[in-house]
Amino acid sequence: MERVYIGLGSNLAEPRQQLRNALDALENIPSSRLADVSSLYVSDPLGPPDQPRYYNAVAVLDTSLAPLALLDALQAIEQAQGRERKAERWGPRTLDLDILLFGDRVLAEPRLTVPHYHLHARPFVLYPLAEVAPATLRLADGRPLTELLTACPFEGLERLDDAL
């Protein structure tokens, strides 16, 4: 089993419920176990400004699936929850599930880059990740999570007290 950190995001069709449904689906991925979930955060959109704010969290999944098999399972969950892939990047969506870290692996596949290519610059990923990852977590390149947090201010982000 490998520990995988998955970023969850939604800003359409009742985003909190979308994330709750995604967590239920993550619990049912074969050869996997949902180990933990961060608090819920709300963040400003990265893309077009004329869209609702995003609800975000990070889930911890222990899995024996191969990375691309897990990606296929995550994309099936997105599709089941009404995700439409459009040419416009960072537009509104019902659900976004991103593999942030997959054990200590470094992957550069056409369909999957791990660690996630913008992990270091996204407070809506780093702060929830810091809640569920060990304080000693380091990326494959040796950078500690604490260093990434210091370089990425808690701006445009709101931590909600209610749990998913």
- Total strands: the figure is 8
The ordered H/E elements are: EHEEEHEEEHHE
Per CATH, the superfamily is 7,8-Dihydro-6-hydroxymethylpterin-pyrophosphokinase HPPK
Q: Label the overall shape.
A: globular
Indicate the CATH class.
Alpha Beta
Main sheet properties: 6 strands, antiparallel
List the helices and strands and how they pair.
Blueprint: E1 2-10, H1 15-27, E2 32-37, E3 41-43, E4 54-63, H2 67-80, E5 96-102, E6 107-108, E7 113-114, H3 123-132, H4 145-150, E8 157-159
Antiparallel strand pairs: 1-4, 1-5, 2-4, 3-4, 3-8, 6-7
Short synopsis of the structure:
With 164 residues, this protein is an alpha+beta fold. Helices cover 26% and strands 26% of the residues. The chain has one domain (2-159): 7,8-Dihydro-6-hydroxymethylpterin-pyrophosphokinase HPPK (Alpha-Beta Plaits, 2-Layer Sandwich), CATH 3.30.70.
Description:
This protein has 164 residues and is an alpha+beta fold. The chain has one domain: Alpha-Beta Plaits (2-Layer Sandwich), CATH 3.30.70.560. The chain is built from four helices and eight strands; from the N terminus they run E-H-E-E-E-H-E-E-E-H-H-E. The chain has helices at 15-27, 67-80, 123-132, 145-150; strands at residues 2-10, 32-37, 41-43, 54-63, 96-102, 107-108, 113-114, 157-159. The strands form two sheets. Strands 1, 2, 3, 4, 5 and 8 form a six-stranded antiparallel beta sheet that branches. Strand 6 (107-108) and strand 7 (113-114) form a beta hairpin. The longest helix has 14 residues, at 67-80. The protein is globular, with a radius of gyration of 15 Å. Its EC number is 2.7.6.3. Pathway: Cofactor biosynthesis; tetrahydrofolate biosynthesis; 2-amino-4-hydroxy-6-hydroxymethyl-7,8-dihydropteridine diphosphate from 7,8-dihydroneopterin triphosphate: step 4/4. This is 2-amino-4-hydroxy-6-hydroxymethyldihydropteridine pyrophosphokinase.
